[in-house]
Amino acid sequence: MTHQPERRSFLRGQFRHKTVMRPPGAVPADAFPEACSACGDCLAACPESILLKDEDGFPKVDLSLGACTFCGDCASACETGALLPTTVWDWRAKPTAECLSLQGVTCRTCEDHCDAQSIRFRLATGGRSEPRMDPDTCTGCGACLTACPTNAITFFQHQPSEETPC
Ligand code: SF4
Ligand code: SF4
Ligand code: SF4
């Protein structure tokens, strides 16, 4: 299905106010509704099956379904230029309050599954320890979320000059 120009203009306005995890290589958020035809070719191409359509029909990544390998198949399948070749993106992981380790339960599962070795634990009071993802080495791949027994990891867009949210 393709979008009519009026609908694209409407969606451009909408996207200024919401942040969606687009596939790696996506053009900037403001330009995405214009560039993407919502054809679904990237969804079909993803070998990890982690791409879904959002409520407007555009592709979004759902890392709860699996990790992104940055294989580039989604960008290769995109004929409109909405997805461009890349091996990185600006999403980073951070723990949520549901983390077992933050509640004093021993767990290092995310650390064990992080190929980039971006996760270190900082001791806290009461037998708790806090997982800390290094935004300079975290790739945002989502392998930690896939492995986490309580889905206690969320993602944010990182700008190198910004402080890491705590
Ligand atoms: S880079 Fe590969 S694994 Fe990641 S969303 Fe695209 S097709 Fe899927
Ligand atoms: S795997 Fe999940 S619950 Fe375990 S330490 Fe990591 S974030 Fe916390
Ligand atoms: S998103 Fe990937 S690189 Fe980042 S902490 Fe999780 S497993 Fe490691």
How would you describe this structure to a colleague?
The protein is an alpha+beta fold and 166 residues long. The protein has 2 domains: 73 residues, Alpha-Beta Plaits (2-Layer Sandwich), CATH 3.30.70; 67 residues, Alpha-Beta Plaits (2-Layer Sandwich). The protein contains 6 helices and 6 strands; from the N terminus they run H-H-H-E-E-H-E-H-E-E-H-E. The strands form 3 sheets. The protein has a two-stranded antiparallel ribbon. A two-stranded antiparallel sheet has the order 3-6. The longest helix has 11 residues. The radius of gyration is 17 Å and the shape is elongated. The chain starts with a helix and ends in a 9-residue tail after the last strand. The structure holds iron/sulfur cluster (SF4) (3 copies). The site of one iron/sulfur cluster has 13 residues, from helix 5.
